Amino acid sequence: MKNIAVLGSTGSIGQNTLDIVSEFSDRLRVMGLSAYNNIGLLRSQIKKFNPEFVAIRKDNIPVLKRDLDSRVKICDTNSGLKNMIASKDIDLVVVAISGSGALESVLEAIRQKKTVALANKEALVMAGSIIMREARKNNTQIIPIDSEQSAIFQCLQDRNKKELRKIYLTASGGPLVDASPNRLKNISVREVLKHPRWKMGKKVTVDSATLMNKGLELIEAMWLFDVSVDKIEILIHRQAIVHSMVEFIDGSIIAQLGVTDMRLPIQYALTYPARWQGVLKSLDFRSLNLAFEKPDFDKFPCLKLAYQVARAKGTAPCVLNAANEIAVEAFLEEKIDYLDIYRIIKSVLSKHRVLKNPSLKEIISVDKWAREAAKKLIN
């Protein structure tokens, strides 16, 4: 029996994780759940999975406590989440919290020597060098949940890193891949949120539209797999069947293929290093028509920024991520236009002097500065 905690259990990744747990209830047990404010869904998850620990925003605790078993330890997501992660009964922590708020939880799980199933990009983008150093120090395994990072993780299993030539990171292209540049000037929030392949949260769907999502994955992969950014190439693959590929120095390429369903990489992260009988249908190769394209950097300048930031390293990725979060939030609230997202990120980056080897304290300080700088531009 593997005991898990799911941080962000009411989001799409969290819900899919619990779907997998339901299929393997004889081998997976939910010990902890955390959510921000979706009390109704969290309450139903508690009743179904009977966790020992639950964390939610402090002002929602009294509401959640009604009609719940008193044996459930309910704490707030600020001070109490650390205690939940530290529980000796928890083997694996699924980090499905979106945004930069996941950084502290990721580091705490690593320091508590828990296996981390990571569905959050922003933590590694902000502080990749610190997270990977802590993981090595504590001999902690980080297993990526994102379909592309999971694919690379699987393709590189037990292989000599010196034999690696290139990683091909695939992207569906998002909802605006065929939109004309003129159309982007007046694109609405509603249109941007229509992703052709995945059902995701609003923030990550906007990132998919700008291809910033792929830019964040580029930086994430650089840290996760300890490779230079020049060894990572992004390809548009609209079918979302080849989740990523790895090329070796002899010219051989290994790809990971699968149905377009997040439950596939989630299941692998939960069962690793074993593979259990799948709950999803297999691919029908007779119906496949696979195609790959180069991304248009002029049309998607956020991706070009991400490459520049990945080469700069230091605090540059932290600034990119922070400015992007604020700009996307402003776009969703219709305070700015779609094209302003890039302009704001670029402007904030231009005002920042990169720190090459930042401490965690410096990263948190830079993150705060970048958010305030972006807000000033928006206002």
Keywords:
single chain, 379 residues, alpha/beta, Rossmann fold, Rna Polymerase Sigma Factor, Chain: A, 7-stranded parallel beta sheet, 4-stranded mixed beta sheet, 16 helices, 11 strands
Any overview of this molecule?
The model has no long low-confidence stretch (mean pLDDT 94). This protein is 44% helix and 15% strand. By secondary structure, the chain is of the alpha/beta class. It has 3 domains: 144 residues, Rossmann fold (3-Layer(aba) Sandwich), CATH 3.40.50; 145 residues, no CATH class; 66 residues, Orthogonal Bundle (Rna Polymerase Sigma Factor, Chain: A), CATH 1.10.1740.10. A hairpin with a 4-residue loop joins strand 10 and strand 11. The termini are far apart.
Taken from the alpha-carbon principal axes, the silhouette is globular
Distance between the termini: 52 Å
Look at the structure and give the mean pLDDT: 94
Strand order in space, largest sheet: 4-3-2-1-5-6-7
- Derived from helix and strand composition plus strand pairing, the structural class reads alpha/beta
User: How many structurally independent domains?
Assistant: 3
Q: Report the sheet with the most strands, covering strand number, pairing sense and barrel closure.
A: 7 strands, parallel
Classify the beta-strand content into a percent band.
15-25%
**Residues in helix, %:** 40-55%
Computed CA radius of gyration, to the nearest angstrom = 20 Å
Q: Tell me the number of helical segments per DSSP (H or I, 4 or more residues long).
A: 16
Query: How many strand units?
Result: 11
SSE run: EHEHEHEHEHEHEHEHHHHEEEHHHHH
Task: Catalogue the unreliable spans.
Answer: none
